[in-house]
Amino acid sequence: MRLPKRHLGGLGAPNITPLCDIMLSLLIFFMLVSRAGIETGADENLVLPEVLQGVKIESFGETVTLNVYDLELNGGNLVTTRRPLTSTDIELTAGGSQDELAEFLTAITNEIPNLKLIVRTDQTLEYRYVEPVLLAASQAQVESVNFAVVDASQGGGS
Fold first, then answer.
1. Do 149 and 50 contact (CB within 8 A), yes or no?
2. What's the rounded Cα separation, in Å, for the pair 139 and 37?
3. DSSP assignment, residue 13?
4. What does the alpha-carbon distance between residue 78 and residue 66 come to, in Å, rounded to a whole number?
5. Using CA atoms, how far apart are residues 151 and 52, in angstroms rounded to an integer?
6. What is the C-alpha separation between 48 and 8, in angstroms, rounded?
7. pLDDT tens digits for range 85-97
8. Dihedral, 99, 105, 127, 39 alpha carbons, nearest 10
9. Which of 23, 98, 115, 155 is the most exposed place for a label (fewest CB within 10 A)?
């Protein structure tokens, strides 16, 4: 009795449809999970203060960036930021800014319990513009307040 020969004529290429399905699923998953390319609201036009030592923030998940301006230079805005989760821009003006900012930070702290606050200021900004931001963060019970700076020993970075 002869056994039939297996004919491999039309089966030379493997079926890659399952492989494509898996690759596209992984691509979509990492696009949704990744924070790369997400706008934090940081104003790149600010000239950050230079420091010789500091601690580099390793994880930027669960952070809110606040840009603090001199009132005369920015048309009356004291603080600008981008709301996490919705990515809407927020401007808090000098009139009652501490209360507005404290309410905003309290709401964010309720949504994100381990909130890290990053304060970005121009290197020439006076402390009187930064103080209401720090007081608002204290009222909102934000535990981690950080300042964005440039590493002077390496000639740049933040």
1. yes
2. 31
3. S
4. 10
5. 6
6. 67
7. 666 677 765 445 5
8. -130
9. 155
Query: How far is the C-alpha of 134 from the C-alpha of 22, rounded, in Å?
Result: 47
Residues 6+ apart with CB under 8 A from 94: 71, 76, 77, 78
Q: How many angstroms separate the CA atoms of 104 and 65, rounded?
A: 13
Distance CA 47, CA 68 (A): 12
Please identify which residue in the block is written with the tokens 């809110």.
Answer: 64
CB 106 within 8 A of CB 30: no
- pLDDT per residue over 47-81, tens digit each? 777 777 777 777 666 788 888 877 765 555 577 77
Residue 21: is its pLDDT beyond 80? yes
Residue that the structure tokens 């900004």 belong to: 125
Cβ neighbours of residue 103 under 8 Å, at least 6 residues apart?
Answer: none
β-strand partners of 151: 51
Q: First vs last Cα of the chain: how many Å apart?
A: 79
Name residues whose C-beta falls within 8 Å of residue 81's C-beta, 6 or more positions apart in sequence: 41, 64, 65, 66, 67, 89, 90, 92, 104
Dihedral sign computed on CA atoms, order 115, 121, 127, 129: negative
